[in-house]
Structures are given as C-alpha cells and as structure tokens.
Design a protein that fits this description.
This is L-amino acid amidase. GO terms for molecular function: peptidase activity. Keywords: Hydrolase. Belongs to the peptidase S33 family. InterPro entries: AB_hydrolase_1 (IPR000073), AB_hydrolase_fold (IPR029058), Carboxylesterase_BioH (IPR050228), Peptidase_S33 (IPR002410), Pro_imino_pep (IPR005945). This protein is of the alpha/beta class. The chain has one domain: 3-Layer(aba) Sandwich (Rossmann fold). The protein has 10 helices and 8 strands. It has an 8-stranded mixed beta sheet, with helices on both faces. Helix 5 crosses helix 6. It is globular and about 55 Å long. It starts with 6 loop residues before the first strand and ends in a 6-residue tail after the last helix.
C-alpha cells in the first residue's frame, strides 16, 4: 500500500463467561480527529483478517475519509482461540457484534461513523445496523448474504453453472468427505476462478494474505462455515438477518458482482426490506470485485462517492 497507517494497536476485549485475556488488533489510516466521519471496515471469512480489504485505505487520501480496519477475534493479529474449535455456542454472531461495539466505543466513534462489511462482514454489519447503533451514518454491504439458507441456494446455483463434469467431481468427493483429493481441489479452483476472483492474473498479495489467514487457523471458519463453502455444516446454519432489516435507518449501499458467489438471490431481502437502499451489481465481477483489475476503480469510487454524501462533522 502507498498509504501508511497513522495508528495501530490492540484493544482489550472481554468475552462474557470466558476467562481468557483477549485483544482486537486495529489499524487506522487518516486522522480520526478530522471533521469527516470515519469508515470502519469489517472483513469476511470469517477468519480472513483485514488485509484483503486494504484497497479501501485509499479513501483517506482521495476523499478525506479516515479508515479503521481490524482483525476479528480468532484470526490474523488478534487473539487466537484454537481451544474453542468446534464450539458453535461460542463462535456465533453475538460475539462479533460485541467486539464491534467494543472497538467503536474504544476509538470514540459514537459521534459519527460509517460501516463497510464484505461477505461475512456484510452479514455482520447488516445485523449490527438493525440494532440502530448510536453514531452509524451510512452502511455498505459488499457481497453480503441476507440469510444462510439463501447463501446455500446461491452457491448451488453457481455450482450448476459449472461444466457438468466439474460439478459431478465436486459432488463425488463431498459425498466421500475427501476434500484433500487433487481432483476435488482442481474443481474448487475452477469454481473460484469463475465466481470468487475472476482476473486472469494471479491474486494480489492482499488477497493471498486473507487466504493464508484462513489456512493458518481454521478455528473460526471451520466452526462457523464447515470444511468449505461447498460443505456448509457449521454454526451459521439457520442464521438470518431478514427479520431485522426493516429496522435499518442508515442509508445503505448494497453491491455484488455479476458472477459473485453472493448471488442476487441472497441480496434481494436487503433490497426489499432496508428502507433507504441502493443496489449496484458490477458487470463481470466476482466475490472479490474490489480487487479485480477491470473493476477496482469502479468499486472504489462507487463506495467513496456514496460515503461522501453522508460525511458530517462528528
């Protein structure tokens, strides 16, 4: 990144009924004391860490919007809790909502802030905004999912767009539970090429950092999702944000890619229930369209222009 963070550190995070000292790592680009409300960026995975979203740090030099990134508990530079692997009662949405509240309070942002969540982060910020948190001004749901049921329907729809031979390979090895088979890995790589990161070039280092975080510690992802997005058997089963979406009062930008794994079917409830919402689908884009060569600038300016409409002194 050309931009240099102006501040970084850790925030103590007390988890109720869990007597282990924990901390949330954060990184800030820009000056939180400026008159422009900051953007808090919430990453996906769960467990990917913030680095794959660092392109949004450019909102500071171009738009004057300070940007706060953080690593959610259990991954990257925040406290890891491998002893909780498989504990679905521990790894649930409320833990991450509490962590986000703790971050916002610690950094003194209640006077005004924006939120952007990507993928799982989009799911999280939708639920958070439905609580009408004090200070939230504008919301960006980037390739989010309104419910886990609709997420699974969207993934299956995408899988059925693969060549029949590839789809049967996925189904065969999933039935066998053989997720490490080279043929299965080749089939999932084809899925990723079509729907996750669609560039012909190699994934940028930012994205590789997120994938490396997921590979290095599977505690959170493995517990909440399962072995992979193709085998969603984790604690997010049954999750939905739909009942609360009508309670969101912040103006909302909703976006996804044309070929996104976050299929349109999982966006429709956001569009139908959030009172003030604009939906943008980026042509030819995948799940990480904010990093794809032909779309990076369009995604960036769409987000920057939207947030600038709501920049108020805080």
């Amino acid at each position: 990144m050309a931009q240099v963070p102006t501040r970084e550190g850790t925030i103590p995070f007390k988890i109720p009924k869990y007597d282990v000292p924990c901390a949330t790592y954060y990184k800030i680009f820009g000056d939180l004391a400026s008159a422009i409300s900051p953007l808090v960026v919430v990453h996906g995975g769960p467990g990917a860490g913030h680095k794959y979203l660092l392109s949004f740090a450019g909102l500071w030099p171009r738009y004057g919007i300070p940007v706060v990134f953080y690593d959610q508990i259990g991954c990257a530079s925040s406290t890891h809790l491998p002893q909780t692997a498989g504990d679905g009662d521990f790894w649930k949405e409320s833990l991450f909502l509490d962590e986000l509240d703790n971050l916002i309070d610690h950094l003194g942002l209640r006077g005004g802030f924006h939120l952007l969540g990507q993928s799982w982060g989009g799911m999280l910020v939708g639920s958070y905004a439905a609580k009408r948190p004090r200070g939230l001004q504008r919301l960006v749901i980037a390739s989010g999912l309104a419910s886990w049921e609709l997420s699974m329907k969207g993934i299956e729809t995408r899988r059925c767009e693969l060549p029949e031979e590839t789809l049967q390979t996925l189904r065969k090895y999933e039935q066998d539970g053989d997720y490490d088979n080279p043929e299965y890995k080749e089939a999932t790589a084809m899925f990723s090429k079509k729907f996750v990161f669609r560039d012909d070039q190699s994934p940028p280092q930012m994205l590789m950092a997120g994938l490396q975080n997921l590979a290095a510690d599977k505690t959170v992802y493995g517990t909440m999702i399962g072995p992979s997005i193709h085998v969603p058997i984790g604690s997010l089963l049954g999750w939905t944000s739909i009942p609360g979406l009508s309670q969101i009062i912040a103006p909302t930008l909703l976006y996804n890619g044309e070929y996104d794994t976050s299929h349109d079917i999982a966006q429709i409830p956001y569009f139908e229930h959030i009172p003030k919402v604009r939906w943008v689908t980026f042509a030819n884009g995948g799940h990480f369209c904010h990093l794809e060569q032909g779309l990076r600038e369009r995604v960036f300016t769409t987000v920057g222009d939207f947030l600038s409409q709501g920049n108020e002194s805080h």
